[in-house]
Amino acid sequence: MEPDIDLSDLPHHTGLEGRLAGIIAPALAGMGYELVRVAVLGREQPTVQIMADRADGGQIGVDDCEAISRAMGAVLDVEDPIPGAWTLEVSSAGIDRPLTRRKDWNRYAGHLARVEMAMPLPDGRKRLSGNVLGADATHARLRVDDSEIALPLEDIRRAKLVLTDELIAATATPAPTN
């Protein structure tokens, strides 16, 4: 039985990456992880990059990446969505992570992000930097200068947190206490 996953909060992918996300996300969910992003780079022998989070919100480690790599390699071998040889890379989202899901926009509200739009906004801009304000089902919100801008989630090409001292402090693992 496939695990229940919130399809409305999966990262937005199209084409081959969309097909891969449809294969990978349920398999990851069954292992206790969430898909942050899948990317296919290169043509001759493409590299499939999987970026994941732990579903419990904990830090993802090397052992997690190894387990995901073994399992997703087997899943992709069986499904065979990519003809010929390919390479698999698995990583955590990191501190200056991409904002690919509605929940990322809400979790990191208050932090600085850079956004690149696939389509220009009405004022002609395609690239913006500002403070994340959150997201609803259709739009992410960003404070740029003194105005709030609603960005259609489906039109965001890339969005990524900017590494700042505040972000490092907010994502730091607390030191163990004795």
Describe the model.
This protein is α+β, with helices and mostly antiparallel strands and 178 residues long. The protein contains four helices and eight strands; from the N terminus they run H-E-E-H-E-H-E-E-E-E-E-H. Helices cover 27% and strands 31% of the residues. Helix 1 packs across helix 2 (62-79). The longest helix has 18 residues, at 62-79. The mean pLDDT is 90.
Topology:
Elements: H1 15-31, E1 33-41, E2 47-54, H2 62-79, E3 87-92, H3 102-107, E4 112-117, E5 127-135, E6 139-144, E7 147-152, E8 156-161, H4 165-171
Parallel strand pairs: 2-3
Antiparallel strand pairs: 1-2, 4-5, 4-8, 5-6, 6-7
Helix pairs in contact: 1-2
Ranges with pLDDT <50 over ≥5 residues?
A: none
Taken in chain order, the helices and strands follow as: HEEHEHEEEEEH
The helix content is 25-40%
CATH uppermost class of the largest domain: Alpha Beta
The mean pLDDT is 90
The coarse silhouette is globular
CATH architecture of the largest domain: 2-Layer Sandwich
Structural class: alpha+beta
Span from first to last CA? 42 Å
Strand content: 25-35%
Which topology of the largest domain does CATH recognise?
GMP Synthetase, Chain A, domain 3
Major β-sheet profile: 5 strands, antiparallel
> CATH homologous superfamily of the largest domain - what is it?
RimP-like superfamily, N-terminal
**For the CA atoms, what is the radius of gyration?**
17 Å
Number of strands: 8
Domain module count: 2
